Amino acid sequence: MVHRSRITTLTEFIIQRQSEYPHAKGALTRLLNDIATAAKIVNREINAAGLVDILGTVGKENVQGETQKKLDVFANEMFITALKGGGECCAIASEENEKVISFSNEFSGLGKYVIAMDPLDGSSNIESNVSIGTIFSIYRRVSDAGGGTQEDLLQPGLNLTAAGYIIYGSSTMLVYTTGKGVNGFTLDPSVGIFCLSHPDMHYPEKETIYSINEGNYIYFPEGVKRYIKYCQEIDKETNRPYTSRYIGSLVADFHRNLIKGGIFMYPGTTVQPNGKLRLLYECSPIAFIAEQAGGKASDGYRRITEIDPETLHQRSPFFVGPKNMVEKVEAFMKEYA
Ligand code: AHG
Ligand code: MN
Ligand code: MN
């Protein structure tokens, strides 16, 4: 319940932070507000999922050859509409669209930012009432004016202006960073306002969890197999054996691990050498947030935020979590390469 005297709303927080950037003109503030607005609409729809006709598939596949759920399509449309009308974003790359969506109208053509997004992450969990999310990346455009281009979007994570996610869970939260720490806001549904609830988020000291789809064990690289066994060994000093937790929604798995101290892994496999997750709108933004929270993200060998994307929907193996844990799995990968 919001008690005015004690809370900081998302809007207040963004505006306070903006004063740290003397040349800022409020564009990023408006952009984040547009994202928050779309998130609230998507949240409303998710909450009513069993009541209204929004569950199930639309009978189509997206660019990745994955079946699109109605909520995938709805969330995609909501975020595109909010950003298109906002005037600050000149292009969007989305999991649900093969090509860059470029805005060249009189407002958005002047927008300084582009956005890459996974509008609905964890869609296999929609029907079963399990947490799902949205992931977004905000880059400054590199082109001059007019509609944004693919080149504006193909930037490494290190160039990110901001990144964040929304988790539609037992409560709805928006977590974001502009490269100066990570802050989390919980939606107070009674008034529809995101309120600062998790200031300056950091991985805890204690390592407790490993998260991986162990059903794919047979297809994993030897280094990952060895690391899983390492996680299961007894060792008081390092708090092992770790607990195994896997939801199947990257946002939810990452969020829990950030709060409780754990590593999330989606490695390359013998059937999918680059794994499943998409660099631009899943790995890079989550990696940027993890680094800001004192953690690390790697493809097993390279820092995720240093990878130059070549295509919009390229995939990457992904290991993200507390520094020590990610470095340990990297060491196993190297040893058993
Ligand atoms: P999306 O719903 O956006 O396609 O993403 C699903 C992703 C990610 O959220 C999750 O970590 C992973 O798929 C789970 O994959 P598996 O079912 O192969 O474990
Ligand atoms: Mn996803
Ligand atoms: Mn998705």
CATH topology of the largest domain: Fructose-1,6-Bisphosphatase, Chain A, domain 1
Can you give the mean pLDDT?
Answer: 93
Bound molecules: 2,5-anhydro-1,6-di-O-phosphono-D-glucitol, manganese (II) ion
Whole-number total of structural domains:
2
Q: Figure out the total of helices.
A: 8
Class of the largest domain in CATH? Answer: Alpha Beta
Question: For the report, how would you describe the main beta sheet?
Answer: 8 strands, mixed
Q: Uncertain runs with pLDDT below 50, 5 residues or more?
A: none
The radius of gyration is 19 Å
Q: From N to C, what is the helix and strand string?
A: HHEEHEEEEHEEEEEHEHEHEEH
Distance between the termini: 52 Å
Question: What is the strand arrangement across the widest sheet?
Answer: 4-3-5-6-7-8-9-10
Overall 3D geometry? globular
Amount of beta strand:
15-25%
Report the helical percentage. 25-40%
- CATH homologous group name of the largest domain: Fructose-1,6-Bisphosphatase, subunit A, domain 1
- Tell me how many strands there are: 15
Q: What is the second-level CATH architecture of the largest domain?
A: 2-Layer Sandwich
**Structure classification:** alpha+beta
Jot down its keywords:
8-stranded mixed beta sheet; globular; 337 residues; Fructose-1,6-Bisphosphatase, Chain A, domain 1; 8 helices; alpha+beta; D-Maltodextrin-Binding Protein, domain 2; 2 domains; 30% helix; binds 2,5-anhydro-1,6-di-O-phosphono-D-glucitol; 5-stranded mixed beta sheet; binds manganese (II) ion
Give your account of this protein's structure.
By secondary structure, the protein is of the alpha+beta class. The protein folds into two domains: 189 residues, Fructose-1,6-Bisphosphatase, Chain A, domain 1 (2-Layer Sandwich), CATH 3.30.540.10; 127 residues, D-Maltodextrin-Binding Protein, domain 2. It has eight helices and 15 strands. The site of one manganese (II) ion (MN) has 6 residues, from strand 5.
